[in-house]
């Protein structure tokens, strides 16, 4: 066994999202979340995601989120399994509609608050540090129908009211907070990212960036509020990350890659540096975008930057300015197929060195601590006759990415922790599938909602347990 490349207090763990695992969609006073009106993949989930008002008016045979993996009722069993692996941290999110069913209710829902009390208590019982996302693609549906979500500035105060309840209620239970999950996704999936339907709108880019401004101001104000309520709180932003490569050394391709990377950096530039980047002025002008910035907004952004930068990483991207090049399928982000990389069953290109590159690029740019809060391989798992699941492909993927992460630490990147995505199998956000599995823990459920929901350990379960026990030194 070699010496670990990771700091002694490194936070190893796993990540889920409330909307992909809890189920119990109408239990204990919960309101509707975006996933609750979306069908499964067989009934056009992606089309419904892009046309949310259609989803509101249609009735489907099966809604995957309604029961999901029933984490709401089974979390004690699941946390015990995570503790068995030795988790130091567990990333989850709080469902806004479980706390405020309509998003703008006068009083919070006590039953929802108690659920998260019980969840965090269960984590702390095993010495697992909760890492909590305040909004993970979970703007209440009622706020979409009433305000078109984050297009409306009034959501800033509604979000702050919600955040204040959380900060005060869990003041002594949660230390690490993320304000928004993958904040840059508002540009790509506005319904998930901002609770918005932009179909038929005259200038959707204007609306998306105005909504982004509202979220950025809300994030800064929440960061201020968090530090006032508990100075020990650590508040982070969260980016859907992955470097974009130019296909060739043709200068036009290099410039296109730089612009693609800036699209994501734009958000973190504001949250980590405290101001809109200089390149945004030309972009806004050329795209007919005029932000409505209220008095005091820029001051808030400047004074209340985040403590750390968290991000998801699954793949890098490739861009070309040639009209002959065609994009691959299977990625939310538009990308070309990189001939030097293998891909997952869902078309996500596997690039461990790109992980190291991405980490170095983020740390070089911001000089703030990083936290990897999503990374993993979605794959079809087969249950053998003896009940085992031999997911060596997942172990290989994670081994290569953890090695790359260790190299980045040796490069000088300050890294706080690593939570693999979907540490227990859950519902895919984009497709509603169960067959796209990421977890160390298998959940007996299929794409049509059949199965016992029983949990079992995959081969990767014991492997990750060993990784944690050796602080990343033994990856064999």
Automatic annotation (TrEMBL):
PROSITE patterns: GLYCOSYL_HYDROL_F1_1 (PS00572), GLYCOSYL_HYDROL_F1_2 (PS00653). The lineage of its organism: Bacteria, Bacillati, Bacillota, Bacilli, Lactobacillales. NCBIfam families: PRK09589.1, PRK09593.1, PRK09852.1. One of its GO terms (biological process) is carbohydrate catabolic process. This is 6-phospho-beta-glucosidase. The active site is at residue 374. GO terms for cellular component: cytosol. Pfam families: Glyco_hydro_1 (PF00232). One of its GO terms (molecular function) is beta-glucosidase activity. Keywords: Glycosidase, Hydrolase. Belongs to the glycosyl hydrolase 1 family.
